[in-house]
Amino acid sequence: MREWTPNGKHRMCAEDDAVYWELLGDIDADELRGCLELGEEVISKHGRAFLIMNGTKARSVTPAARRVQADWALTHDITSRGRSVIYGTPKLVRAFSVLIIRASQLIARQTPAVDFVDTEAAAMEWLHKQRADWDNRTSSAPQDPVRALRK
Fold it and tell me: C-alpha 1: how far from its chain's center?
């Protein structure tokens, strides 16, 4: 059973390399910052983080939160250390999510990897696939990059 921590009006928790974020209404700057910081903690422990967002009760992202995301992308690698999935989102929330992704592209020249699925079950399937793909990618990578260059 997940041990949830309050995150403003939302709640979140971390389990292994996954961060679960249940969204309730609008996302403000402090709430987004809290989730990003939890993601950094997970990355420092596991080398990666997968963010699974329950968007069934989400509404929008405030302009201040969009600014936090854009600023975060200027100082953090948001593309190679994990991926995100949002499930159950209304079309309006998906549109706001796309705006945040576009802002990261324009400001920080990074495109965060975000997928959308309809159900929690599909999000869990997504998580298992991401872990397997990540493990396959890292297991096939050369262990000694200097030696790999000499070949």
Answer: 21
Block residue for tokens 């009760």: 57
Q: Which residue has the tokens 């700057």?
A: 29
d(CA 101, CA 79): 11
Does the pTM surpass 0.70? The reply is: yes
Question: What CATH number does residue 12 fall under?
Answer: 3.30.750.24
The boundaries of the domain holding residue 47 are 5-150
Number of structural domains in the chain = 1
> Which pLDDT tens digits describe the chain residue by residue (151 residues)?
789 999 999 999 999 999 999 999 999 999 999 999 999 999 999 999 999 999 999 988 898 998 898 888 888 887 789 999 999 987 877 776 777 666 656 665 666 678 999 999 999 999 999 999 998 886 554 444 333 333 3
